[in-house]
Amino acid sequence: MSRQAVLTYLRAREGEYLSGEELSRQLGLSRTAVWKAVDALRREGYTIEARTGLGYRLAASPDALTEAEIRNHLGTAGLVGARLICLDEIDSTNNYAKKLGMAGRPDGTVVVANCQTAGRGRMDRTFQSPRDKGIYLTALLRPELPPERLICVTALAGVAVCQAVEAVCGVRPRLKWPNDPVLHGKKLCGILTEMSLEAETGRLQYLVLGIGLNVGQTAADFSPEVAEMATSLAMALGRPVSRPALAAAEIQALDRLYSALRTGDLSGYLAAYRRDCVNLGKTVQLIGAGKSERVEAVGIDEQFGLVVRAADGTEKTVRSGEVSVRGMYGYVE
Known about the structure:
By secondary structure, the protein is an alpha+beta fold. Helices cover 32% and strands 26% of the residues.
């Protein structure tokens, strides 16, 4: 508690030197408790300068996915993120959130991890989640909506990720159908939504929405096959990006998404998705059931399905659970 109190006070007066005596008086702590708190914060990665006759000054904060750092950027949280669980390592944030869902943890709980040892993507693919490089985040949601109203959640999350990246980095990713944010033609993020339904009624018990965002990875952090199609913000922008700031922006974007989902007004998300989808107007491959079909992507329907046109002019709509889409000559193109 004293560690958090000292951090909060130093942060409120960031850039100034504060004497140990002032910290002791303002926080109701002994001078020894203040010194121990400063020492603990330094061990957590905070750069706190100390000068004789001046006191302590917070010079820099770590790029750490801790509750203190994320909440510093988050401010007042909405429903999503009001309860925040930060972990150093976990097998999968989705797995952890599902356990919380079964245990009755409340709507809007968010789990964030610094590392995943068994990250997962669509169709049981692995999602590489190295330590100190990405943001691995899952929101536990309990919308009182029928499952058919939730088919579009993953697509909505793609738009939310683009909003968050744009807010923090000043650049907006595009979207490869059905739900992959891409930058410079390479995959930036993986999104996986899972639901639990009551067997007898089909009623939704909970939904977990998982997002793995590549932030600080280099090419060496990806396996050779993944490196061909994946990128990170650091690789694409050529500069570091604050993970706590970006995690907070993701949580804020997910809170807006959740509000829109519950009200049913998704028009803004649909317009953004159609604008940002890299596949539209291009020839793509539909891959599924052991075969590949060459078609033209011509539109996105009201449920975020991809409308495609075959060589004979016939059109159909495909859903994300049916097929994957690839470019003719690569991941996107």
